[in-house]
Amino acid sequence: MSRFIETIQLLKGKLMNLDFHQERFERTRSEAMGLKKHPLLSEILQVPKGLEQGKLKCRVVYEKEILRIEYEPYLIQQVRSLKLVYPEFIEYGFKYEDRSELEKLFRLRKQCDDILIVKNNCITDSFYANVVLWNGVNWETPDTPLLPGTMRASLLKKGLITESRIWVDDLAGYQKLRLINAMLDLENTVDIPINSIH
Description:
Blueprint: E1 4-11, E2 14-15, H1 18-33, H2 41-44, E3 55-62, E4 66-73, E5 82-85, H3 100-106, E6 114-119, E7 122-126, E8 130-134, E9 139-142, H4 150-158, E10 161-164, E11 176-180, E12 192-193
C-alpha cells in the first residue's frame, strides 16, 4: 500500500492551515483507500513541549493508520531559477511519501535550482511547491496543479490569488513567479524573475 504524508507548518507552537490539511487528509483516505471515517488531526497532533518557538515542519506519515509524526527544523530552499521540464506522463494527485517520479524530473534541472513541470502544455508545479505568477495586477496560480496544496487553497479562499489556465507560452506575459507550499506563504517567499525560467 502507498504511504501518504501531510506536511504542516508549526509556527510558534501553532499548527497552521489545519482545516485545509484535514480536508486533504480526508480526501486522500476516501479516494485512495476507500475509507469513510477519519480521525481529526487536531486531536492526533499534540505539539511536544519545547517546540513553541520559531518555524518547524510537522510531518505526518500515514496509510490507513498514522504511522509516525515527526517534527523537524525548516530549512528554506533558495530558489532563483527554474528549468522547464516536459514529462511524457506524470500523476501526483495525492501527497505520496514516494516522490521518485518527481525526483527523476528534478534531476533534469541542470544548472537551475528547481524545475517547473509542464503537462499537456500547461504550467503545473515546481518540484516541491505550487506556483503563483504576477501579471502586473494580481497573483495567478495555474488551474492545472499536479497537487493542489493547502497554502494554495488558503490563499484562494482569502482571495489573495486567483486560478487561471496558464499555458507555457503565456509565461512571457508575466513579470515574476513565487513558490508557495505549506511552509511558504505568499509573503515570505522570494520573487523569481520570468527570465530566470529556462
